Amino acid sequence: MAKRTFSNLETFLIFLLVMMTAITVALLSLLFITSGTIENHKDSGGHLFSTTPNPPATQGSTVTQSSTATQRSTATQSSTATQTSPVTSTPEPPLFQNFSGYYIGVGRADCTGQVADINLMGYSKSGQNAQGILTRLYSRAFIMAEPDGSNRTVFVSIDIGMVSQRLRLEVLNRLQSKYGSLYRRDNVILSGTHTHSGPAGYFQYTVFVIASEGFSNRTFQHMVTGILKSIDIAHTNMKPGKIFINKGNVDGVQINRSPYSYLQNPQSERARYSSNTDKEMVVLKMVDLNGDDLGLISWFAIHPVSMNNSNHLVNSDNVGYASYLLEQEKNKGYLPGQGPFVAAFASSNLGDVSPNILGPRCINTGESCDNANSTCPIGGSNMCIAKGPGQDMFDSTQIIGRAMYQRAKELYASASQEVTGPLASAHQWVDMTNVTVWLNSTHTAKTCKPALGYSFAAGTIDGVGGLNFTQGKTEGDPFWDTIRDQILGKPSEETKECHKPKPILLHTGELSKPHPWHPDIVDVQIITLGSLAITAIPGEFTTMSGRRLREAVQAEFASHGMQNMTVVISGLCNVYTHYITTYEEYQAQRYEAASTIYGPHTLSAYIQLFRNLAKAIATDTVANLSRGPEPPFFQQLMVPLIPNIVDRAPIGRTFGDVLQPAKPEYRVGEVAEVIFVGANPKNSAQNETHQTFLTVEKYEATSTSWQIVCNDASWETRFYWHKGLLGLSNATVEWHIPDTAQPGIYRIRYFGHNRKQDILKPAVILSFEGTSPAFEVVTT
User: So where does Zn(2+) get bound (predicted)?
Assistant: First the structure.
């Protein structure tokens, strides 16, 4: 490539960017506490670290803020952090040994966290802050134990973008404090659904901390508490039961968003499959010995990005809507998020799978941009966006979610193949930057230190980047290389060579200030229930990557006597490491390949590691597996960039006052709207005074009382927070009146918390509520 010279304008821009960056780095350094230590986070014995000095949460406990002082947003190390946490004794549910099946426990708990003043996690779009709530986020836990209680496994599906390493380590820490060795790193899987509309801020590696605009201890603690509570509930509710498995295709809800990458895979391999996405849904049906429903786990490959990057409402996207529909159907008479039946729609090998089935089109011209670089003739890659089947993103979310719900419901009803056999689990921590991969009997390759390629900055057709980078870049650009080199230093020749043909935009594996930018130590894990193997994948496998891993693990089991194993890919588990493409897809360097951070042989390394786990389970040699190097747990992280400020009500008003009442009368299909004097909803993430921001209530004349018909977990309600100046804000509650609404008298209530601080006194958080005048819903 010929050497490029810079124009005077480009030289000036480079100088300006470097100066601006230097100022930014100087300011950020004031926000970072860079003297923090890195500690090994033990999961058995030794030193246990918690992000707050509070005792471990027990069932039913909540994380609350003191009324006399605010808590620091940074993670600080308590003076007793190096002491071994006490192990409290938890009564075991009674175990009987005279039945065929498993002990089964299911539990669900809220883990929503902040719904304002925090980035939404997934699109990495600056300015996409949460400004309200469409649906609540839940942790759904499933515990399976052998009849004699000797072995058990835990699978938890969480309505968040992905499980961070920090989140998993803290959950394991507190589980050990409460349950001893009952729930451990090897038999507990934490999996994120991958909604792109959940709060960020719960990570410890610098790339994700920057994307989150800081670490939010408020959200982190709420997530940890919710996950633990769901496991506590499942543990308490364990009862004898049976598990059945079923499989079936779901049509019309997916496309491959990188088909040109998929076509790089060998034609002979592609010919074995009828589609460039995995259409099969795997469903586990859980019932008690009387046949009464307990719960469902579904694995299906689809990105929860029906809600696009213009959204500002916290929600669980299409997979969460599927859970909502099934749980509402099974838990009749309960409000959303309540009732005994638990339905998890878990993630799978969704890396290159989009629900936006109308495909990519140039939003300025309407023409297709389904090309190798996802670019438009006018406007480039920023104009190339895929859309879903609905009239808007809300409609698309419902259409895709309902299709998944319908198919899961059918598979659940017809499930007849019982899962039987022992439970087992295997886990290792692995340094993914230094895995020797055997390509054949004579040749090896190695994984790389983490790095992100140019096409990472391009984004995808589901959410484009903001600087007009394009997908499919196999060469760098001197302009951006110069900016990177000036700010972060140059990537080493070793790293550049290891990642070829990826042109490196960010050499994250060589950056360690204030903390490492990406993880080196990664979890690999398998749990088995009889003939079912659940592989816990620490990232996003593409379609063909998932197929290769499933096939390899199944073959490994078979070679050691465990025939006909069903292997499922469970995505976004335990620690997040971006994407994993095949070696061939890596050569095309679209977004997914540029985000395969450990280099071209990443998939081969994972296949090798998971085969090793499968062999250990099949040969009963799990005890001989090395634990591997333990991951770090960083004690001090960047504070959120959005500060806490005092809430204020307009003169002559108080919090919760109605500014705009509902109309006197509505018909089914219309939207009732009420505007209240509001306060920052993030205050409520630390306070459990109210379990919802809103209720819609119907007056019952027979009992002369108001009955709640909807809350903020209901799909037909929306809560918007409008941030004003100097602590002023409004809250808008919408009720999209469904066809099922009964005629009658209704009202809307708003529940919140305001931050108050008098001079020379610490801040306090106070609860308040507001109630609209009554209005009538009539039939058409």
Answer: 194, 303, 540, 579
Instruction: Report the C-alpha gap between 128 and 234 in whole angstroms.
Output: 35
Active site residues: 354
Cα–chain-centroid distance for residue 730? 29
- Mean pLDDT lowest among 219-228, 254-263, 755-764: 755-764
Please report the pLDDT score of residue 53 as a whole number. Answer: 34
CB 177 within 8 A of CB 267: no
Q: Is 579 a known ligand-binding residue?
A: yes
Note the pLDDT of residue 136: 97
Mind listing the pLDDT tens digit for each residue in 367-391? 999 999 999 999 999 999 999 999 9
Residue 22 CA to residue 18 CA, distance in Å, equals 6
pLDDT of residue 97: 67
Q: Strands 521-529, 423-431: parallel, antiparallel or unpaired by DSSP?
A: antiparallel
What span, in angstroms and rounded, lies between the C-alpha atoms of 605 and 485? 30
Q: What is the pLDDT of residue 440?
A: 86
Q: What tens digit of pLDDT does each residue of 243-259 get?
A: 999 999 999 999 999 99
- Between CA 61 and CA 178 the distance in angstroms is 13
Which residue in the block uniquely carries the two structure tokens 């790339």? 207
Per the annotation, does 475 bind a ligand?
no
Q: Is residue 578 part of an annotated ligand binding site? A: no
Adjacent-strand bridge partners of 699: 706
Annotated binding residue 716: no
- Domains belonging to the chain, first-starting first, are 104-437+507-624 (no CATH), 657-778 (2.60.40.2300)
Phi and psi for 19 in degrees, rounded to 5? -65, -45
The 10 Å CB-count burial string (b at 16+, else e) for 734-754 is bbbbeeebeeeebbbbbbbbb
Judge whether residue 86 has pLDDT over 50. no
Q: Could you give the C-alpha distances from 579 to 159, 351, 631, in angstroms and in order?
A: 19, 7, 20
pLDDT at 760: 84
Tokens of 215: 């670490």
Determine the residue type at 486: Q
Bond before 501 cis per omega within 30 degrees? yes
Can you tell me the distance from the alpha carbon of 446 to that of 598, in angstroms, rounded to the nearest whole number? 9
**Cα dist from 501 to 282, 578, 581, 593, 715, whole Å:** 36, 18, 14, 10, 45
Using the structure block, give the residue that is written with the tokens 């065929």: 100
DSSP string, 581-650: --HHHHHH--HHHHTBTT-TTHHHHHHHHHHHHHHHHHTT-GGGS---PPPEEES--PPPSS------PP
* The pLDDT value given to residue 779: 85
Q: How do residues 626-676 score in pLDDT, each as one tens digit?
A: 999 999 999 889 888 888 999 999 999 999 999 999 999 999 999 999 999
